[in-house]
């Protein structure tokens, strides 16, 4: 087991410069929830990623910054901003990243959910791997076409979220929701050891 863990951690070589061992974006963090994006960011760094960018609401930014000087925090998820302006900010940031995590501490506020949808669209455009967790999954269960055909999206639900996603997919497959006839490709990794890869 330790050998498998070691295999995913980049060696710290003297010739590497900052960012070459991994640049990960964490999109989440609102007024109510500041711990989850912090833990997601620090977890990335503890397994070898050397740059973590947390994209959050302006209310969450100073709190998350206070947890650690190692984190780069962008208060871009501002409900007073035009959605297209946020999209352009995310496009600029995501060009620097190797992967993104969408959802920790996101909350279910309409504006934050809209930002998550835009983030998934931008991540797909950039051909990034996207781990969708927590309230990012709330978006997916309510709008499954958000990840339709996105083969680099990995959903990581707990048992309750897994049930909600399965019910949402049943509604899609039974035709009770309008989804384009293209392939629906999902990679669900349950936190209780159940893995489901489905392609319809």
TrEMBL record:
Might you give the EC number(s) for this enzyme?
4.2.1.93
Pfam families named among the record's database cross-references: Carb_kinase
Question: Which branch of life, at top level?
Answer: Eukaryota
What GO terms fall under cellular component here?
cytoplasm
Main location per UniProt?
A: cytoplasm
Which chemical reaction does it catalyze?
A: (6S)-NADHX + ATP = ADP + phosphate + NADH + H(+); (6S)-NADPHX + ATP = ADP + phosphate + NADPH + H(+)
Q: Set out the biological process GO terms recorded for this chain's protein.
A: metabolite repair; nicotinamide nucleotide metabolic process
This entry's Gene Ontology molecular function terms read:
ATP binding; ATP-dependent NAD(P)H-hydrate dehydratase activity
Q: Gene3D superfamilies recorded for this chain? A: 3.40.1190.20
Uppermost EC category: lyase
Question: What task does this protein carry out?
Answer: Catalyzes the dehydration of the S-form of NAD(P)HX at the expense of ATP, which is converted to ADP. Together with NAD(P)HX epimerase, which catalyzes the epimerization of the S- and R-forms, the enzyme allows the repair of both epimers of NAD(P)HX, a damaged form of NAD(P)H that is a result of enzymatic or heat-dependent hydration.
- PANTHER family (alphabetical): ATP-DEPENDENT (S)-NAD(P)H-HYDRATE DEHYDRATASE (PTHR12592:SF0), ATP-DEPENDENT (S)-NAD(P)H-HYDRATE DEHYDRATASE FAMILY MEMBER (PTHR12592)
Family per similarity comment: Belongs to the NnrD/CARKD family.
Q: What is this protein called?
A: ATP-dependent (S)-NAD(P)H-hydrate dehydratase
Instruction: Give the species.
Output: Malassezia globosa (strain ATCC MYA-4612 / CBS 7966) (Dandruff-associated fungus)
């Amino acid at each position: 087991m330790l050998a498998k863990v070691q295999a995913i951690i980049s060696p710290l070589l003297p010739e590497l410069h900052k960012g070459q061992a991994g640049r990960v974006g964490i999109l989440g963090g609102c007024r109510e929830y500041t711990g989850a994006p912090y833990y997601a960011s620090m977890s990335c760094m503890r397994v070898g990623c050397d740059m973590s960018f947390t994209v959050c609401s302006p209310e969450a930014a100073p709190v998350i910054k206070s947890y650690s000087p190692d984190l780069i925090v962008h208060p871009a998820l501002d409900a007073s901003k035009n959605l297209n302006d946020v999209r352009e900010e995310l496009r600029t940031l995501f060009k620097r990243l190797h992967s993104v995590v969408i959802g920790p501490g996101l909350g279910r506020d309409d504006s934050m959910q809209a930002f998550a949808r835009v983030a998934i669209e931008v991540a797909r455009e950039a051909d990034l791997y996207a781990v969708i967790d927590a309230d990012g999954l709330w978006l997916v269960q309510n709008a499954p076409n958000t990840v339709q055909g996105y083969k680099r999206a990995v959903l990581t639900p707990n048992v309750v979220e897994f049930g909600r996603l399965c019910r949402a997919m049943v509604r899609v497959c039974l035709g009770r929701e309008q989804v384009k006839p293209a392939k629906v490709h999902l990679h669900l990794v349950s936190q209780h050891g159940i893995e489901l890869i489905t392609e319809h």
